[in-house]
Amino acid sequence: MWRKVLNIGSWLLLMAYLGVSLWFTDQQMSRLTYRGVKVDIVDSLTSHFVSPAEVTEILSKKGIRITGNRLTALNRDEVKSTVKSLSGVKDALVYSTPDGTLYINVWQRTPVMRFVSPYTSFYIDTEGNDMALSEHYSAPVMMITGFADKKFLKDSMLHLVNVINQEEFLEALIEEIAVNHDHTLEIIPRVGDHRIFFGDAGNCEWKLTKLKVFYQKGLPNVGWGLYSSIDLRYSNQVVARKWNEEELKVRDSVRMSYDTLSIEKPIKKV
Question: What's the average model confidence in pLDDT over 74-91?
Answer without folding.
Answer: 94
